[in-house]
Amino acid sequence: MCIAKLDKKGDVATMSDSVFLKRTIVKETLWSKHLQEERKLRIYLPPGYNEVLSYPVVYCQDGEEFFNFGRIATLAGRLIIEEDVEPFIIVGVEVDVTVRTQEYAPFGSRFKQYLSCFSEEIIPFIEQKYPVRRTPDERILAGDSLGGSVSLHLALAYPAIFTRILSLSGAFYPESRDMLAKEEDLSWLNINMVVGLQETDYKTDTGIYDFVQMNRETKTLLESRGATVSYREKDGHHLWGFWQKELPESLLYFLNA
């Protein structure tokens, strides 16, 4: 397959997918004082990346899964080339699945430390090394399941840094909804939510949950406090096969604005 693009003179130039979708994936490791361990990052640099420019940035929880199963790097290349989306950088923050719930869930033993690590260590690390934009409206936090939940909690804890959340079947457990209920004004928050209609009895490591009802209740809580909520329900299960299909629409919600 070939893609046609206009060159600087307005003439049509045709090149192969492999050229247009060429990207760079950089791996980084930082030491977290808050977590007392190393944390690995995957950085997607878009086609035509230039350090002189500045880029919007998407920060992903479950970074390895977003790249391997969500195919976010490939999807990003297609959005940039085929949908004419402004080039953007992606930062995937990897997690040890054995302690994922402890870091991502509000009742987890490492939850507060993870929030501090993300906001006070990872963000400065990236902003020092890469030409990402540094305003809340140019940062997107993305997460699936508990990753969607912890992304929202990061925004609640650091509203001066994060205001835009992309949630794929967010695991908004009762503790998260209780914390949301205590908020009075979320008019600064913009969240895109999607959930699969077949996620009504999904088994997690902490119990069986109805993700559809969970997300509906969270949507209501958010809207009642003034948040901007883009919400959709689609046929789908609590799997990357579903989230991968929905990811482009969710990214376009923020990046095509």
Automatic annotation (TrEMBL):
It comes from the Bacteria. SUPFAM superfamilies: alpha/beta-Hydrolases (SSF53474). Gene3D superfamilies: alpha/beta hydrolase. It holds the Pfam family Esterase. This is Enterochelin esterase.
